[in-house]
Amino acid sequence: MRRRSLLLAAAGAAALSGPLAGRAFAAAGSGPLMDHRTAVDLDGGEHVDLSAQAGALAPLTTGTILVTFRTTHHDEAMTLISASDPTAPSSDLALGLSGGALQFSVRQQGTVLINVMTRTRYDDGQQHTVAVTVDSSGARLHAGGQVVFETKGHPFFGSVSGLAALTLGANLDSDHPSGEWFFTGAVERAAVWDRVLDASELVAQCPRPVVADHGRISTILNSNTPATWLFTGDSITHGALHTNGWRSYPEHWTERVRWELGTPKNRDFVIDSGVSGATSADLVSSFAERVSAFSPKVVSIMIGTNDIATSGLGLDAYRANLVSLVGSVRALPGSPVPVLQAPNPVDPAKWPGRVELSGYATAMGEVAAQQNVVFVDHYDDWLTGNGGQVPLTLLNDGLHPNERGHHRMALKMIRDLQIFDTGSRVCTLSIP
Q1: Least crowded by CB within 10 Å, which of 46, 82, 318, 348?
Q2: What contacts 336, CB < 8 A, 6 or more positions away?
Q3: pLDDT band at 403, cuts 50/70/90?
């Protein structure tokens, strides 16, 4: 629901009743005032009518709104939950998606009291649990149990007079009595509390929570404060030679963030300190010059392809070095966010000495899980996307990714960190 431009969606939906109507309500206190747990599939032209419960929510000036959903289609404007005055134009509170971004808006008779939107996107067909919490200190948007956006504005239900309609999947007003900004997909749960849930409570409400570092990266992406992104590793991160003149995966990330996300993200910086031939031991020993010297906010580490071919760097040493690197990143001023990225698989016919690289990718995933680190698994992504076989068309010499391989890695990172957009040139780049 792109309230900035007030895009209109098709009208003509009828409110649903019977098994699709909200049923669960609780008294004010620790539990939710409203808790609709009947999953509904919405086709972009219908909504769930919960208006009988609107009066209980209308006075709230503090609280939490939470929705678990998954999209089945990309629509420009989609409502998750809305409370409105159906007899007036543009008097409503709504939590929804705008071009896939999470959006929270409150309007009173056309006056916009708050309208905030993330750069991170949630219309990827995966299950997401999003929330907005509001108190006197401001409003916060959450995804996967983690804060992803904060603002000092704090209008809530009580800021809008005449709230009598409460709907899932659409917004109602006098200009659109049958609804607008319809949702396409499944709404699995919608709940409202009269208090702000704390961090642990929000995580507990998520069927699929994300690690705290994922939320921190989302906050950086959604913030207007400049950030420095550092990519380090070996020749693959370096992007040396094998890209055939095309962009490497850190360069694709640069374009996606510094240009396509718009001003002021163009004030972010992306630094590539990858060095051909590097191992995890090299990263540990040269950490000061390759990482800490740049005062990063996020540090991406892709390493392991050379470890497997280096005497003395077996899996135990590799694990220990990864743990050391994660700890060193977090110990830097400002506690930067580490990201571990598994190396890609190689052609076993050309590189028989590195056929056990899968063990290093697995070890990195295990370290990431143990250390609660964001993990981008290129090794698994390449194999599952090619029927379990190494996709040779993504490799230049059987080991180093070519231009297609680098774009594939960039897309994996972009999707995992939730800034994929079908309107992006980076995301839709076609490489002959």
Answers
A1: 348
A2: 230, 296, 297, 298, 299, 329, 330
A3: very high
> 352-355, long-range: CB within 8 Å, 24+ apart, which pairs?
353/308, 353/309, 354/305, 354/308, 354/309, 354/399
CA–CA separation, 110 and 119 (whole Å):
25
What integer pLDDT is reported at residue 10 of this predicted model? 29
DSSP per-residue codes, 106-172: EEETTEEEEEEEEEEE--SSS-EEEEEEEETTEEEEEETTEEEEEES----GGGSTT--EEEES-EE
Find, among 219, 192, 224, the residue nearest to 93 by Cα: 192
Would you call 112 exposed, middle or buried from its count of C-beta atoms within 10 A (0-12, 13-18, 19+)?
middle
pTM of the model: 0.92
Helix (H, G, I), strand (E, B) or coil at 16: strand
d(CA 388, CA 383): 4
Residue position matching structure tokens 């630094």: 271
Least confident span in 14-28, 211-225, 281-295: 14-28
Q: What mean pLDDT is reported for the chain?
A: 93
Query: Comparing C-alpha atoms, which of 171, 179, 187 is closest to residue 122?
Result: 187
| pLDDT-derived band at 12, boundaries 50, 70, 90 | very low
Give the amino acid at 82. Answer: S
- Total residue count of the chain as it appears in this document: 432
Residue 194 gets which letter from DSSP? S
- Residue 7 reports pLDDT greater than 80: no
What residues pair up with 375 in beta bridges, in sequence order? 340
**Do 420 and 428 contact (CB within 8 A), yes or no?**
no
Helix, coil or strand: residue 201: helix
Residues 78/107, Cβ–Cβ less than 8 Å: no
Tokens matching residue 389:
């076989």
